[in-house]
Amino acid sequence: MMFVDELRSAAATLEKAARLWRLASNPAAAPISADWLRKQADILDAPIPPEETA
Fold it and tell me: How far is CA 32 from each of CA 16, 38, 40, 45, rounded to the nearest angstrom?
């Protein structure tokens, strides 16, 4: 079971990295600062409220 939890954690990390990469590499977006990317990473790290998962 521990292996499955580690895989889920790794998958979540990869998903977060992919989302940040898409945000950072979007040519239509304004230039993105490192501070903005850090803020987005913090938002993506926040737990999902229970009402959104029900």
Answer: 17, 11, 11, 19
Sign of torsion over alpha carbons 38, 44, 45, 51: positive
Name residue, tokens 């990469």.
Answer: 21
Q: Where are the alpha helices (DSSP H) in the chain?
A: 2-24, 34-45, 50-53
- Give the rounded percent of residues in the chain with a pLDDT score beyond 70: 74
Report which of residues 30 and 28 the model is more confident about: 28
Distance CA 28, CA 23 (A): 10
Rounded to two decimals, the pTM is 0.49
